[in-house]
From TrEMBL:
The name this protein goes by in its record: Cytochrome P450 9e2
Chief subcellular location: endoplasmic reticulum
Location relative to the cell: Endoplasmic reticulum membrane; Microsome membrane
Cofactor: heme
Amino acid sequence: MWVELVILIFTLISLGFLYFHLAQRRHAAFWSSKNIPFVQKGTTWSELLTWKKTMFDQNYYAELKKIGAKFGGVYEQGSHALFVNDPDLLRAVFVKDFDHFEDRRDVKTTDPMMSKMLVALHGQEWKAMRSFLSPTFTSGKLRRMFAQFNSSGKRLETHVGNIPVNPETGCHVVTIPELARRFTVDVIGATVFGIETGALSEPDPIFYRLATRAVKPSKFLIMKFLVFIFAPKIATLLKIKAFDAEVINYFKGILSTALKQREASKEKRDDFLQLMVEARHEGKGEKSENGDKTAMSMSDDSIMAQCFLFFFAGFDTVANLVSLSCYVLAVNPELQEKVRENVEAAVESTGGEVTYDSASKMDYLDMFIAETQRMYQSQPRLERKCTKAWKVPGSDFVVPSGMIVMTDPEAFHFDPAYYPNPEQFDVERFSPENKAKRNPYVYLPFGLGPRNCIGMRFGLIEAKVAIAHLVKTFEILPTPKTPIPIKMDRVFSVSKAPADLEICLKFRSKQE
């Protein structure tokens, strides 16, 4: 019996290798017939599932750079796809000719929460939702919400002060990814869900615990999302749900209660949920607070889907940015002092308070965050799905409708042709003078074009507030356990700060 089982397993593995080998040859022949270079180095399902590789495509980028190609054909889990290696072509795909690339890759699911999220919508449905949500992130709206950002920043200081201090060093030793997640949960709870989560005042509040669980990677979660991305018909057939049922039910309960309270009391708050409530009124023919109307009607599922998207997209990514920023400051004291001087100069006219106006004056902090995002890019790739046949400029190749066109932000960020000495952290890369000299399409932390990250400004302000409060109040120092240099965790397709990354926060003396 065991012999037969071993033979069966060996046969299946051999057939699998044979299938992929023949598929590679077939795809190579396709691209060769188009006179387009074919890049064979990529990732397989098994490599993704075992975390041996991620979806970061620097192999594609490097191979095409070697031969001076601006784009090339790749093999993507059974399909032809085009990899773009040139910033001017990126501009054409993501911006100039966006009407040919309006959609993202199809992620079909029977999960109503996931299917109604902005990132999963297509065509006119996406345009309507994007147009409706965009006003949430204007400078005026963010200014109105800023008091909640700042309140979270003050609670962050208090939370650190309540952590036991080492009497010999005066250090409050923190695991910075956890601290940053508590801050972002506190902000998002207030600005999206309209509630006080207790993330910075209680040791283990349920909101924080379930939020952390929702984004914690696992091989099972990875497998589900791979099925959603590469085998959507199977996901639909098996009725696979994207998210943990307990997590979803908890947050749906909070949102449902908050919606009913807003409707019943006519309470108006400066948060994301308020915009959704106004959308419901507009769908019934009522006017919103500013007197505008929209043809869009928002169901409970649509409201909850956008709130969930905003939460999932902004919670861990901003926490990761704050964590890595604090690490860089801890191991670069001179740089930390420059950031601190910039923050203190900005808040001098506001009595030491971090306000919307004072934050907008923190130009050096802006440059520092931009360089942090270049060095530690978390978004693994940018993709668009061709929705209307498109001829590649300077080529005879026509991208057919349905083909995925992609690129790799991290590869651009570490290309010495655009960023000399790319392994070196250099804030001055993002001075106004140096930015003006560089092609803007080689800096890609939030994507490009009309389908870029809609919450970009929100996330940057959130990160600025956290960093400003920390450098204003504390010295940020390494501990004996702080790794130098840092080794990033690569989970599925996302680059993250190590979960156990430790730093010291020490209250600054009043004499400083």
